[in-house]
Amino acid sequence: MVEELVAAGAALASVGAVYAMAAARVVKQYERGVVLRLGRLRSGVRGPGFTMIVPFVDRLQKVNMQIVTMPVPGQDGITRDNVTVRVDAVIYFKVVSAADAVIKVEDYRFAVSQMAQTSLRSIIGKSELDDLLSNREKLNQGLELMIDSPAVEWGVSIDRVEIKDVSLPETMKRSMARQAEADRERRARVINADAELQASKKLAEAAGVMSEQPAALQLRLLQTVVAVAAEKNSTLVLPFPVELLRFLERAQPAQHGGAHVHAAQVPRPAAEAETGTGTGAEAGTGAEAVAGKAGSPEAQHLLAQWQQSMQEQLPPVEAPLDPDFGGSRSGQD
Predict the structure, then answer these.
(1) Mapping DSSP to helix (H, G, I), strand (E, B) and coil, where does residue 224 land?
(2) Cα 293 to Cα 299: distance, rounded to the nearest angstrom
(3) Is the pLDDT of residue 310 over 60?
(4) Residue 80: how many other CB atoms lie within 10 Å
(5) Looking at the DSSP assignment, which residues form a beta bridge with residue 70?
(6) Residue 203 has what pLDDT?
(7) Do the Cβ atoms of 151 and 158 come closer than 8 Å?
(8) Are 242 and 255 in contact (CB under 8 A)?
(9) What's the mean pLDDT in 95-107?
(10) How much is the mean pLDDT over the chain?
């Protein structure tokens, strides 16, 4: 008798263990459990943790409540301005009602994917190419509203929608590249023209300042020479101003008195020396030829006028600049 009771107790324990193993379920933290008893939805949704169901009567279906990232396949379409493009996107959504996601739609993931593709095609047909390339934020909001409207009934909430890439035909890419290049070239020309205008105004102001002080032009010339001379691989050809020769001539005392011009201080081409008159025709250098020309009254008059104009432009010299010139101020004009 005792042995029968022990055997019956062991059998009941075994049946209880089997029942417990068949009825026990574990729902994870990010999941919710929807129980269908004999095909009817139970009112309560099982939360995370350990739960029990009736074996062979209840069926527990787990629903993931995490945010799902789903890529939308690329869709070919024609924009509002008749440009063929291929656009792909990505959608982020999550389940907010586990019971609706199980009861109201067969497969909520597939349903959201198909709705996203159709909405993306619709957005492509309503938008222009410039909007697809530069105004994506507005298009993303439009896509989100179009997908979220039917998804709310399925217990799904659309978190956000992003357009990933817009593929253009090669001909359109080349056309856009030429347009961008032309626009940049136009802006570069405008900038260069503006720079030339500003530089010309500054040069005009500088020329006005230099015209008030003739010596400033010589100083500017010397600065240019210094700047060019910094390049050791350059050959510098420096023009020697005649005004500086006149300045040195006035610093030297006159040796012959009167309005006689020291022709040796003023170089002239050899052709003038060969065609000179008087003593200049017989001389072997250009300086003597000029001295011969100075003997005629007309030449003396011209040289005197030129010397007077140079004296008006240059400041008076109180003393010789160099002892090598010698003489005194009494011999000057």
Answers:
(1) helix
(2) 6
(3) no
(4) 13
(5) 91
(6) 87
(7) yes
(8) no
(9) 90
(10) 76
